[in-house]
Amino acid sequence: MTNALHAEVAVRIGLLDLDVVLDVGPGEAVSVVGPNGAGKTTLLRAIAGLQPIDRGRVVVDGVDITATAIERRRIGVVFQDHVLFPHLSALDNVAFGPRSTGVRRGDARRRAREWLARVGLDDHGDHRPDQLSGGQSQRVALARALATEPRLLLLDEPLAALDASTRTDTRRALRRDLAASGVARVLVTHDPVDAAALADRIVVLEAGRVVQQGAPADIAARPRSRYVADLVGVNLLRGTGQAGHLVLDGGAALVVPDADAGDVLAVVHPRSVSLFRERPEGTPRNVWQGTITSVDDEGDRVRVDVAGAVPIVAEVTPAAVRDLALAPGAAVWVSVKATEIAAYPA
User: Fold this and answer.
1) What is the pTM of this model?
2) Contact predicate 324/250, CB 8 Å
3) In terms of Cα–Cα distance, which of 206, 83, 105, 103 is closest to 148?
4) CA-to-CA separations, 133 to 121, 166, 168, 187, in angstroms, rounded
5) Tens digits of per-residue pLDDT, 289-341?
6) Half-sphere exposure in the Cβ direction for 9 (13 Å, CA)
7) How far apart are CA 71 and CA 46, in angstroms?
8) Which residues is 268 bridged to in the sheet?
9) Is there a contact between 30 and 23 (Cβ–Cβ < 8 Å)?
10) Which of 202, 186, 194, 195 is nearest to 78 (CA)?
11) DSSP 8-class letter at 279
């Protein structure tokens, strides 16, 4: 089966050296994530035809469109700030999409009404952008892109401009609308929740290269870089497997029964890290001393950074913070069960 998108993109801009191959299957949703400067938006712009490429090609539905004019690529784009025309109604903003591809005015407005209804805004057609909420504006921009009947949809941080109070509801609506469209799509985001909720597969870019890709659950279970581990909120350790132990690069060793010989990565979820003010009783096999460097309250949980032979982040309850008097500079004992450490080849 022909991929909806096959892109080979090599672009050098300033310090960015982007060299990526990206495939998206028919109807598939792919999230592209990465740190600032990794090349995410440049990749999206190159696929859309907004950024010339130095080397490579862009193939959509089996057709090479590398040299095709932007307006003839049949690629829908939804930008971060939605870019609605302030002097046009929601209906006319959506109709502008198909009109720009040569559809006659009457047909464009009919198509616009259909798409506004699909995104739940059929009663907002006469509203101008300043009369719409952030979430409504985002859905109008999506309807405008989909009304062009694109073969591929590109979304650049579509939820970034929304406040926290509307983000969850808009994410849910966007997921529904995108799935119903059936269009293959590429989403650029910095938010791990958006990436996991809106995509079937995640592609991680770092310094212009793909460093990892896979289903959201697989990415979270086996991160391959510090950035990915931080993105999904887990501890990533690297060392050498030796007879059931993981010897870290700094020299410390942990008991990890499934650590194979050789270069090994290991994941520890912060929830699996226990903190004590005195050495814990019993015979836990992975215990070490550390010093708290930061305490971040995240509502129903608190993330505690601990420096030491094995630098690690623990996730505890607010009650534990009070009971143990956890604060920057405090000395603590750290314990992790060997069964709570997942190791895999680096």
Assistant:
1) 0.85
2) no
3) 103
4) 12, 9, 14, 22
5) 999 999 999 888 999 999 999 999 999 999 999 999 999 999 999 999 999 99
6) 32
7) 14
8) 235, 341
9) no
10) 186
11) P
